[in-house]
Amino acid sequence: MGAALSRFRAFLRKGTDTLQAVGEPAGRPCCETLEPRLMLSVSGPGSAELFEFAEFHVDNPSYGGNAFDVEADVQFTHAGSGQTVDVDMFYDGGDDWKFRFTGTETGTWNWSTSSGDSDLDGHSGSINITSNPDAYGFVTNAGNKWARQKGDAAGEATWATAGYDTVEFSDNTYVVADLAGTSLATYNDDVITLDVNAAGYGWFIDETPADSREFTVTTRPAGMDLLTVLTHELGHDLGLDHSDTGVMQDSLATGERLTGM
Q: Do residues 99 and 109 make contact, with C-beta atoms less than 8 angstroms apart?
């Protein structure tokens, strides 16, 4: 070690710009030229809407075997709730591997990759899932019925404006069924069930739910106001009971929209 250090110091004193290996002819470089190791890139969106899939690409030019033998997993973890979702990567030709993710909860999701292939292993990042209340989610079940997840923008906005924490609504499931008697809807354990035809009166589905001018004129909409009913059931989700006035009344007339708490 001491002899090598002495030779290095002598080289510095000579001021030469060719470093020679001990015992090799002058002018021959001591080392082969090293190619820089490419940093493999992962490209994908930084944000996506609730229930809409996001696609990520992983560049892997160094793999020379059968690409379909490679196993690579990606785990997404919600930063707030700790919920985890595991997805697989898949080969898409050339140097391209992909993975896709559908957010089931708004907020930040952190992800990391795991694979026996070193070029696909150890990547990490995050994606922010934003609200998308009008989109349908995954098929699920509500008791012995099939159902699809769906948000309700206007109803949630009503309770948010009133100062309630609407995060409670993210796990709700909405079901359409033939309810008994004059029931318009029910709420039970995060499941809101709407009657198939509003107890025979039909549903009024407002194309502009933030605007209630239809209910301030003499000729009002026919049928039961779906917005009022959904807002009412979301109130039960928040733990509210029936009241004598406002949207939590236990009855509704055709062509009527209830507001207020």
A: no
Q: Which pLDDT value is given to residue 51?
A: 85
When divided into structural domains, the chain yields a total of: 3
Does pTM surpass 0.70? Answer: no
**pLDDT by residue (tens digit) across 219-241?**
888 889 888 898 898 888 888 88
Residue numbers of the domain that contains 187: 136-248
pLDDT tens-digit map of 136-161:
677 665 555 556 565 544 555 555 55
> Do residues 3 and 51 share a domain?
no
- Tokens 């898409």 belong to which residue? 92
Residue range 38-61, pLDDT digits in tens: 444 788 899 998 888 899 999 888
pLDDT tens track for 160-172: 555 555 555 666 7
Residues 13, 79 share a domain? no
Q: Are residues 212 and 140 in the same domain?
A: yes
How many angstroms separate the CA atoms of 204 and 220, rounded?
A: 10
Q: What is the pLDDT of residue 111?
A: 96
